[in-house]
Amino acid sequence: MRRSDREVKEFEDIVAIMKKCDVCRVALNNDGYPYILPLNFGMCIKEGKIELYFHGAVEGTKYDLIEKDNRASFEMDCEHKLVTEIERGSCTMEYESVIGQGYIEMLSDDEKYDALCILMKHYHQEDFPFNKSVMPHTKVFKLVVEKVTGKRRMKQSRN
After folding, report:
1. pLDDT band at 155 (very low <50, low <70, confident <90, very high)
2. Closest CA to 140 of 48, 63, 38
């Protein structure tokens, strides 16, 4: 990382950033080009590893690409704030972001319910009783994170 002063090094701090984000962009290999998808997600930590959960229709390009190559990269960001300094004629952006990579696993029908509960928990404080009749028409997959880095740019306060 070029700007090591902005690097978020602690695992717990990286996870805290991820919990604030509401979209995860997943990049798949599409014959040498990235195929990028903005997705809703859920997250859990198992044995010290981050697992990201996603859902979608039962068919689509992403599944064809995952079948060919289940490696994936991801990115998420939050806490955006434009900071301007009129007297200096400058502006910058505050943010927190996480990027990483890992591999995708398709989940079985038996694993869907728990994964969807994890996904729903990311967006609802309380348990949300979602309609289980959609489950046969929903594909669920997870990205097991093998590598992750975090970065933060927050304006320094002046004394």
Report:
1. confident
2. 63
